[in-house]
Amino acid sequence: MFESTLPAGVPDLLSVSAFRRYLDEISRGPDVDAGASRLSGLNPSLLQDLLRFDGRSAEGEGLEVLEVLAACVRHGRALLVHLQDGQRVVPLTVFPAQRLVHTPVPPAELLAGDPTVLRVLHVEPALLRPPGHPDRTLVGERECHAPLGPLLWELALRGAREDLLPEIAGPAAYRLAPGVDLSALKMAGTQAAAVHRLRRTTSSLREIAEWPGFDRGRAMRLLNGLYLQAGLIVSRSHPAAGSDGWF
């Protein structure tokens, strides 16, 4: 028998089939609206934000991870996100204010496979509290915490979403915010060169897509990643915004 790789005290992960049975049970409850079985007890504005994407997801599939995490960051709400990773369900608690996540599966392991197949099965308000909370019984294991920024970056670059997030789409020009710290992110070569260029110039999506090593898809992924680091200035009035017909 192989020993568990999870930290002591962390429960075994549920199978997808067992978790779907649980979702089926709660969906049969009274006064359950469409989509509520996987978007439970959320703040009304956050719920409406996520329902935009929920209506597009195929029957039986979950939401895209990046869409959910972007909404979590945008609204500043701590959430418990249940991810489908193959045949297992991984609980991911997101603390946007602290820029932390808590998960029994290290993010590096979660991203080691194909991040495009990760899906969100269920979202609810966080049950855990971030480190430093006065009630330590509500704080998860220290070794299960990790920075949020690198996870968002990798999901933006390698995850399922290939289009710009709605908040930065449309006629716009982009520039990196002064002083933003990206030192924790993995980037090299043409990515690093593009980030350096965005520190100095304001550019449209079309212009970025024409830079060495880039195309439209890579440009959109880069912009999503920078936006989720709170490092992107989006200008709707810059002259470059009006010259871009890619929206």
List keywords for this structure.
2 domains, alpha+beta, six-stranded antiparallel sheet, three-stranded antiparallel sheet
Radius of gyration: 19 Å
Oligomeric organization of the protein chains: single chain
Report the β-strand fraction as a percent range: 15-25%
The whole-number mean of residue pLDDT values reads 87
Proportion of residues in helical segments: 25-40%
Low-confidence stretches: 1-10
Largest sheet: 6 strands, antiparallel
- What's the overall geometry? globular
Secondary structural class: alpha+beta
**Number of helical segments?**
9
Number of domains: 2
What does this protein structure show overall?
This protein is α+β, with helices and mostly antiparallel strands. The protein folds into two domains: 16-147, no CATH class; 166-242. It is 34% helix and 16% strand. It is built from nine helices and nine strands. It is globular and about 50 Å long. Mean pLDDT is 87; it is low at 1-10.
How do you describe this structure in short?
The protein is an alpha+beta fold and 247 residues long. It is built from 9 helices and 9 strands. The strands form 2 sheets. A 6-stranded antiparallel sheet has the order 1-5-2-3-4-6, sandwiched between helices. Strands 8-7-9 form a 3-stranded antiparallel sheet.
